[in-house]
From TrEMBL:
Keywords: Oxidoreductase. It comes from Parasedimentitalea marina. GO terms for molecular function: nucleotide binding; oxidoreductase activity. It comes from the Bacteria. This is Gfo/Idh/MocA family oxidoreductase. Residues 173-299 form the GFO/IDH/MocA-like oxidoreductase domain. Residues 38-163 form the Gfo/Idh/MocA-like oxidoreductase N-terminal domain.
Amino acid sequence: MFPHLAECGLLEFDSQDTNFATGCKLKFTRTQNMAEIGIGILGGGYMGKAHAVAMSAVGAVFNTKLRPRLEMVCATSPNSAERYRQAYGFQRATDDWRVLVKDPKVEALIIAAPQSSHRAVAEAAFALGKPVFCEKPLGASLADSQAMTAAAQASGCVNMVGFNYIRTPASQFARQLIADGELGEITMFRGEHTEDFYADPKTPASWRTNGQSSGALGDLGSHMINGALALIGPITRVMAETETVHKLRPGGAVTNDDHAQMMCRFESGAMGQMYFSRIATGRKMGYAYEITGTKGALRFDQEDQNAVWLYRTYGPEATRGFTKILTGPAHPDYEPFCQGPGHGTGYQDQIIIEARDFLAAIETNTTIWPSFRDGLEVNRVIAAATASARDSSWQDINPF
């Protein structure tokens, strides 16, 4: 097994999930102590490339027993699919997702395409008994997310959602500190996911600004909401506002939100505030949070992703203060990438960690966080926040 995953809270077997053990039975090509698995990826763009690179590197980085084989890539046209095949090293290419899913040599699926495609592809893969890794947000709507989670549960197949930012060694360390009680009782969480890729109103409209995407709240907010759930625990109610600042862009009208703010209450009693924006001028990767507890506090910013600032309430008053802790081999999932403290890990490394977890889940037929069920919890919070913004009222999470 993988004890380091359990220590980091990533390995999560649900003994009440009676369907899970009856799931897909994959036959891998075994060579000595290793086995191959054919990987199919839907989408060859930004995230498709990241997952292809991760699957190519994960065996060397983590010495996984299950070794990925880049079997097939699917894109929107034959030309782009073939281009991705050559660039990333896939065996074959197609422009039909049904061909991808049904191919017997494609033994596990990665969905790295707009969320409007997620449900159909995932349901088809589960029907054939194939594990699925789906990029966030899980579904294009709460109904889609519920259906996808139900299909995953009924199939018993391994399923994961791509929340990569919470996997940095620094955030895994923060999660450990909180779980170990180092900060005492958590009283306040403040988080943001802010970027400026749409800060310029002259930036053309795209699928991200129309009905294929759930806006800043669903696109960026899902990452920070997932982070808040992982760090602090379940959210019970929310109060939110959303706004479209640039309503018209070259190429069309904008039909979803540019930024959103949200207050929340956690099940633990802690207060929370979050802000999500794709028009935050000057912010490039503002996945950041501050956590206050009765015995300490910490803060983290993804733009300085190899450091955590930690405050502890002991020692002489004159020497107290936030201490910058640089990540190194003593922190979770750092040493496989580098043996030198302070040298740091990067964005692609987070995707490689995800690949390791997905392969470990398949090999051991075990649920590894975050599953589709965890992705659904994020979408429930987003649905409640959307209703809150519409009705200008506090919304409980339970009805969603």
